[in-house]
Each structure stands twice: as structure tokens, then as C-alpha cells.
Amino acid sequence: MPHTQVDEIQRARAKRLRRETTRAETLLWRHLKADRLGGIGFRRQSPIGNYIADFVAHACKLVIEVDGESHDFEERIRHDERRDQWFASRGYRVLRFSNDDVMKNLEGVLLAISQVAEQAAPLSLTLPRKGGGNPATGGAHPTTRNELRKR
Known about the structure:
- It is a single chain.
- The chain is α+β, with helices and mostly antiparallel strands.
- The chain has one domain (8-120): Endonuclease, Chain A (3-Layer(aba) Sandwich), CATH 3.40.960.10.
- It is 45% helix and 17% strand.
- It has 6 helices and 4 strands; from the N terminus they run H-H-E-E-E-H-E-H-H-H.
- It has helices at 8-19, 23-32, 74-89, 99-104, 106-120, 142-150; strands at residues 43-48, 51-57, 62-67, 93-98.
- Strands 1-2-3-4 form a 4-stranded mixed β-sheet, with helices on both faces.
- It is globular and about 40 Å long.
């Protein structure tokens, strides 16, 4: 993913949010950091455009938001919907969990994240080396080599 410049105000906000995490965010981060969830690399409090995502895995374009009680108000819900639409317009899928979900059902939250990340993860295909294959076999594909022997 190409690196985009983050202005100093956003960078400072993200740093402050990393220092002031909620208990639920801290608990979830323990399971997401260091590629612990299926080898997926997550970042926390990461600036993306004008927003700061609680957690993001750029490789599978997944944003995870952990919401407190302040997200229960109608104005905040509309703001979250606009934010989710902005992320979606850039190809990101957003999963939202309440602090309560994380604190009382961590295993369920991790399972949901894992399933969505697995579905969204790009396929990693191994391509043959330049020259057509294994150098020990003369470069030919094993099936091709066997077919040639039969003739």
C-alpha cells in the first residue's frame, strides 16, 4: 500500500489516542499485535485520511472500531456511518464492537475478526522461478518431464 503523508495534527492525535486507550482496546490489542491473529499485521490508532482507525490491517483492508457509550447517541451514529462509508469507498471493511462486547465476549470478537480477515485476505500465489521450475530437474515441470520420458 502506498504511503500517504499524515499531517502533524493527525499524528499527534493518534499518539495521544495510543496513550489513552480504553480497557477494551488494550485487551483487544494484546490479541491483535505482533501478528498474533492468524499472522495478520494490525496497527492501532492509525491515521487514514481525516480519520484515525482504532485498529487496521492494511493487507486485508480491515478496520476494527471499539466503541464506548458515546457512540450510542444519534449524532454519533450518523458520524460513524459517514466514516464507515468513507472507509468503504477506499476498499476497507469496518467491523464495530462495543467495549462491552470485547470485555464480555473476547473469544467471539476475535473469531469474528479472524473470519472476516480470512475472507478479505489477498491470495498469495507462488509463481515458478524464471526458467520454468526446479533447477535440479533441468528446469522442466515434473509432470512435463515424466510425460517426455514416456514418449
